[in-house]
Structure formats: C-alpha cells, structure tokens
C-alpha cells in the first residue's frame, strides 16, 4: 500500500477547523464543568408553586423536632422560593434536639468532592426572627466523618442577610454532603445556598480537571450552550440568555425539559463567553429562534425574540457604555468578547416557520453587525442553499461504517456557497458502546475527509462533549467524569491528532491500496508555536484487522535531516475494536508516542491493525 504526498498542491485549513461543542446535557455543566457543589441551591427546582419539591435536599430530624416547607418569601424577585425551617427542639428542652442538631443536607450532584487541604466558600442567605447559631459542615460518606465545619452566628437577621464563610477540609471524600444544622428553637429561612471550591480555573468557576481536558484539545471554537437544550421541548423551557446573567443568586434557573433536569444557571451567557476566552477559542452562540420541539412563535410576534438576540450580541461585544455591554462590564469584563459567529436555532430547518424566522434574524443581525457570520440550520452539502447564510450546519450520528464512509461526503458538496459547519458528529449505537476504539477510528476517518475538503468545510466538533457518569442520557460522549474523576474516551483522544490542523496547510496526498479501502490518509504541514519549528504530519486510519506496511513517498518537500531525530510516530490503538476506557482503566486507549527512525522522503511505516497513526517529520 502506498501513499504519495505532493507538496506542490496545497490548501489552507481554517484556524477554526476543529473545536468543541458544549451542551448542557448529561449534567455537563450543572454538576460538571461548573464547579458549584450544591444541587438546587435556591430550592427552585421543584417549580414555583408551594409547597415545592426540594430534591435533592433532605431533612435531618423528625416531625417532632423540625418542620421544613417552602414559601414564596425570598428576597429575590426572579426566584422567589425559599426554604422555611421551623425548629421545635432546642439544646436545653423541653424537647431536646438530637446530638448534632436538626436541619437539612445537600448531597450535591451524586456526592460533593471534598479534598484535604482545599478551601470551599459557603454563601447563603438567611432570615430569622431570633438570633441564629447554625452549624455548617461538610460530612464524608465514610463513617459520616466531619471534614470541615463552621458556625454561622448572628444576633439580628430579621431581614434577609447574606452570610459567607470559608471552610478548609481536613480530609478527602468524593461523596460528601453539606449539612446545615442547629439546636436553637425558632424559625429560620434559607435561600441561595452555594458551596464552591475556591480553586477553580482562574477563579472563573470552571472545575480545573474538566477545564484542562478542554484546554488540551486547543479548540479553535466553542459552540454553546447546546443543541436541543437551546430549543427546549417547549418554548417556555428553552434557554433564555437574559435569565442567566447578573449576580448568580438572582438568576431564576430553568428546567431543561429535553434532558430533564434543573439548572441553576451558574454557567450562563457570560460564563460561556468567558470559557471561550479562557480556552482561546472563538465563541459560537447558538440561540433560540422562537422554535422549540413542540411549539413556535407566530412570525408576527417574533420581533421581541429578534431584539433579545441583538441584545445578547450587544452584551457579548458592545462597548461598556452600551446598555447591555455595561451589564457585561459590571460582571467584570469591560472589554468586549470576540463574538463573530451565531447560529440561528438547532436542527430546525424542517420545522414549521424556520425560514421565515431565520430571515428575520439574518436581516436584523447583518444590519446591526455586518461582520457577524450567520449559521443556518439547513443543509447545503447536496445543493446550494436558497437563502443567504455564511455557513450551514451539518450533523451526523451513525454507525462506524457509515461515518467512516462519510469521509467523502463533502467531495461532492457544492463549491462557491456557504461553507459547512459540522457542529455535531459521532459514531453512536452498538458500535460505539460507551466510547469504543472503532467509533474513534471511524470518526478520525471522517475528520480526515473534512480536512481533505477544507475548501468547503470550516469547522467541526464532536458531540456530546461531557457525560457525568451518574446521568448518562446520551451515549457515547467524549469526556466522562464523576464528582472527582475524569477520563477521555477514544473519541476524545482521537481529536488530539487533529488539533495542530487548525491553521495548517493541507498537501495533496493519494493512497494507492488496490483493494476496497479501509485506509484513509491526509498530509498537512503545521508550525509548532512553542519552538516555531515546522513539521509534516501524515495521519492514517487503518480500520482493517490486519497490520499494513505503508510505503510513503514525499515529493516537493525537503525533510530536515538535522532535526530528523525529532520525528515522532503517535498511535491510537488497542487489541479489540470494541475496547473502551473506563474509570478503572482510563488510559487503556490513549495516544502513544515513539521516536521514528530512518526517516526519508521514501520510507515505510507499519500501521497496526485498527489504528489511527500520525507521523510528524521536521521540515
Ligand atoms: O448531541 C446531542 C443532541 O443531538 C443535540 O442536542 C442535538 O442537536 C442532536 O440531535
């Protein structure tokens, strides 16, 4: 089998070719990347009618010592539910409280990860007609050991009062909980109880280990805040950016009815833009276009929706003197964020009213922000779109064979019109399990096909990005985590082979296989920004079950003989195509690097069965 690389024909790959797509699905954000440890911190998750469900908060004590209920008595207008706790016992009788007191506890999102020596900031709002003495403690799951404790004491909290306390852990337990208990008789109201580790990425609230996984992908862009999450099953449950900004305690939160969980929206419009900036990725905001899965806004009533989006763009990139830019500035970011792309809805092209609504958004946005690039939901890969757009969105979820064969999908795409944004791709179904090698190889083949079509494809992202192991609503996903651990699936590691392609140059390369091809390859030149050295990278997927000796022949490019000892081969493979990573074996399938000897313009390399291989040759 031979691969001919010819450097005389080259195409530029966009700087944003490979990025990431963040969706609030599988508790990716709430109980995931967003480091808040309290679940349902404002007691709003049960809805606004009272009595309300306070799940997952639980009560410590019985009816003879404590009555817990909810009331619409909060000091926050947009999230009015507060918790009322009537303590019937006391430390000195007549009804004596149990040792340790009575109160409530929150288990977080399937356990809070409390770590020895780390500091946690507890913030809560409290009101009571008497003085209070509340014990806040972090309790481990093993033997209910107290890992940290603090006393919240106040003589006058007759008006809602914000209390803050730092708690340092003297032990580690990934399944801890936060308890608020007292032995003082009387009524206490609580609201907006937050516990965050002090140590988050740059203090921006992102869980460090999960942020690192994203950063190490060097994403060119980040699409957010979701796909179906943006639409909602019903419009009343769609993501509305204005409800997600400003002080966290004032945000109403909302029930994401597609993925069926509540989010307190600590991770809101501002935080997504901040995340993009922290990752060095361009933000791509997918907004709700007045269409959900089951209802839509009448086109005659669309104007407020269009204005909402114009305001959201102004929030992101308007000057700090502008109405919404000043709100952003008040949140600590006076400089505009670099918002250049927006997507009008998600997977809505065939839904009633899409085109009419799309054009209204398109006209208003291009009028107000002529440089903003607009992404249509309609597929332009078979024929040119009949409406104006800068990009068209393309999604593919299928079995491994179909995804691998779809590498040629864009060979036939029309040239000269809007370019493709492959904003969701993945192998799913039986082939993929919870993230298998064969899925990753097929996706790698597909991405090589996108590289080869970089004149018409400008962006691509895998979906979904994250899964909290305790809420696997969608399989597979790129990054798996629980309260304390994280690992990448083979599909995550596969993406590492493509990160240097952003802004690289694609060279012409031809595979000569002689049989029906289970191989696919590309060749790019790229510059290492750390040492400024240039490399030729050849990537090959061997999806077959036998090893292959590949005869490489490079034309029109001189390898750097002085630096040739810097040549590296990187391989992603395993003994079985269904192999997966897991918490027990997180590194079973990860890229393995080895030095490459005998480098020359004509050379052989051996491709392992079922492997993705890249070779980097200094030029
Ligand atoms: O990635 C999971 C879902 O798949 C997205 O929400 C949606 O856009 C697609 O159908």
Work out the count of structural domains: 3
Helical coverage, percent range = 10-25%
User: Which ions and ligands are bound to the chains?
Assistant: alpha-L-arabinofuranose
Distance between the termini: 24 Å
SS field, number of helical segments: 9
Main location: secreted
Subcellular location: Secreted, Extracellular space, Extracellular matrix
Organism: Dorcoceras hygrometricum
Keywords: Extracellular matrix, Glycoprotein, Hydrolase, Secreted, Signal
What does this 3D model show about the protein?
GO terms for molecular function: alpha-L-arabinofuranosidase activity. This protein is an alpha/beta fold and 619 residues long. The protein folds into three domains: 2-10 and 505-618, Golgi alpha-mannosidase II (Immunoglobulin-like, Sandwich), CATH 2.60.40.1180; 20-35 and 202-501, Glycosidases (TIM Barrel, Alpha-Beta Barrel), CATH 3.20.20.80; 58-197, Sandwich (Jelly Rolls), CATH 2.60.120. Helices cover 15% and strands 33% of the residues. Strands 31-30-33-28-27-26-1-29-32 form a nine-stranded mixed sheet. Strands 2-14-17-18-19-20-21-22 form an eight-stranded parallel sheet. A hairpin with a 4-residue loop joins strand 24 and strand 25. It is globular. The structure holds alpha-L-arabinofuranose. Alpha-L-arabinofuranose is lined by residues 23, 25, 226-228, 346-347, 424, 463-464, 474.
Give descriptors for this structure.
Jelly Rolls, globular, 619 residues, alpha/beta, 3 domains, 9 helices, nine-stranded mixed β-sheet
């Amino acid at each position: 089998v031979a691969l001919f690389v010819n450097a005389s024909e080259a195409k530029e790959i966009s700087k944003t070719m490979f990025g990431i797509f963040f969706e609030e699905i599988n508790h990716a954000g709430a109980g995931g990347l967003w480091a808040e440890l309290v679940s349902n911190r404002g007691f709003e998750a049960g809805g606004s009618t009272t009595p309300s469900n306070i799940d997952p908060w639980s009560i410590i004590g019985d009816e003879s010592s404590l009555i817990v209920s909810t009331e619409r008595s909060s000091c926050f207008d947009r999230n009015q539910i507060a918790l009322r706790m009537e303590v019937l016992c006391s430390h000195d009788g007549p009804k004596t409280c149990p040792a340790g007191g009575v109160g409530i506890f929150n288990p977080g999102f399937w356990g809070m990860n409390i770590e020895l020596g780390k500091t946690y900031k507890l913030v809560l709002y409290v009101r009571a007609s008497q003085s209070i003495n509340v014990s806040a403690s972090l309790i481990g799951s093993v033997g209910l050991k107290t890992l940290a404790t603090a006393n919240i004491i106040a003589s006058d909290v007759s008006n809602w009062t914000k209390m803050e306390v730092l708690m340092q852990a003297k032990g580690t337990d990934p399944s801890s909980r936060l308890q608020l208990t007292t032995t003082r008789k009387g009524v206490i109201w609580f609201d907006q109880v937050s516990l965050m580790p002090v140590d988050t990425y740059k203090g921006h609230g992102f869980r460090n280990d999960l942020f690192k996984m994203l950063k190490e992908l060097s994403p060119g862009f980040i699409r957010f805040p979701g796909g179906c999450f943006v639409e909602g099953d019903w419009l009343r449950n769609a993501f509305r950016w204005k409800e997600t900004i400003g002080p966290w305690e004032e945000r109403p939160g909302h029930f994401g009815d597609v993925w069926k969980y509540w989010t307190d929206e600590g991770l809101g419009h501002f935080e997504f833009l901040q995340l993009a900036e922290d990752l060095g990725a361009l933000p791509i905001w997918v907004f709700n276009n007045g269409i959900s899965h089951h209802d839509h806004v009448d086109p005659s009533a669309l104007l407020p929706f269009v204005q909402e989006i114009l305001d959201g763009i102004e929030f992101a990139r308007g000057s700090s003197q502008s109405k919404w830019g000043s709100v952003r500035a008040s949140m600590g970011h006076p400089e505009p964020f670099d918002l250049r792309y927006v997507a009008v809805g998600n997977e809505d092209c065939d839904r009633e009213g899409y085109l009419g609504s799309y054009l209204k958004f398109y006209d208003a946005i291009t009028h107000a922000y002529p440089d903003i690039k607009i992404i249509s939901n309609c597929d332009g890969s078979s024929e040119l779109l009949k409406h104006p757009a800068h990009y068209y969105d393309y999604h593919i979820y299928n079995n491994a064979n179909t995804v691998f064969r779809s590498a040629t999908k864009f060979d036939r795409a029309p040239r000269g019109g809007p370019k493709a944004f492959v904003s969701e791709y993945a192998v799913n179904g039986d082939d993929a399990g919870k993230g298998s090698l064969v899925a990753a190889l097929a996706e790698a083949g597909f991405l090589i096909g996108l590289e080869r079509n970089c004149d018409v494809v400008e962006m691509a992202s895998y979906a979904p990005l994250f899964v909290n192991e305790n809420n696997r609503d969608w399989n597979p996903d790129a990054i798996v985590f629980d309260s304390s651990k994280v690992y990448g699936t083979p599909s995550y590691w596969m993406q590492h082979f493509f990160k240097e392609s952003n802004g690289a140059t694609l060279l012409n390369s031809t595979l000569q296989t002689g049989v029906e091809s289970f191989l696919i390859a590309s060749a790019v030149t790229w510059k290492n920004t750390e040492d400024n050295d240039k490399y030729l990278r050849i990537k090959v997927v061997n999806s077959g079950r036998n090893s292959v000796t590949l005869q490489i022949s490079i034309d029109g490019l001189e390898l750097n003989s002085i630096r040739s000892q810097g040549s590296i081969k990187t391989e992603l493979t395993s003994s079985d195509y269904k192999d997966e990573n897991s918490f027990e074996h997180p590194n079973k399938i990860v890229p393995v690097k080895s030095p490459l000897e005998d480098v020359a313009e004509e050379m052989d390399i051996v491709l392992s069965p079922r492997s993705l291989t890249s070779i980097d040759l200094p030029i």
